[in-house]
V-type proton ATPase subunit E (Lactuca sativa), 189 residues
Amino acid sequence: MNDADVSKQIQQMVRFIRQEAEEKANEISVSAEEEFNIEKLQIVEAEKKKIRQEYERKQKQVEVRKKIEYSMQLNASRIKVLQAQDDLVNAMREAASKDLLNVSHHKFHQHHNYSGLLKGLIVQGLLRLKEPSVLMRCRKEDLHIVESVLDDAKAEYAEKAKVHEPEVVVDTIHLPSGPSHDDPHALSW
């Protein structure tokens, strides 16, 4: 082998080694590109997931705020309704107390309307209590009217409740007298 053949063989070996190195470099480059793309895709997906989670968290916060606001508005409207009902009840109570004051002070005690009112109140009280024995109090000035309508009230109660007539004892302790026209606000509830 002479120098030219050796040089030629060395050149051939260098080309072969270079070609192998270029192929290996290409493989490494392609592999690195693939790994880069995979890692980039994973990072992008992870960030997308974070963004979705953040969006869902904020959406839930908005929904919670909406529910709280709705609940507050609902409570406010309920309070308004209750206040309106309370105002109506107070107005009715005031009107009833004025009417009762008029009824009790205009000498309706002897009149049929007042005795009918007392009888109805006794029946209503018995229906509410539903007891076989009741102790009842009344005003001293109403005692004779109460005693006059008591038997009819007991009979009406027994008929409505479909029970035996209850024992009703009129207490010897009397309720206080009603207010006068001079002081209509003295009526206590």
The first strand starts at residue 133 and ends at 136. Residues 1-106 form one domain. DSSP finds three helices and two strands in the chain. The first helix runs from residue 3 to 105.
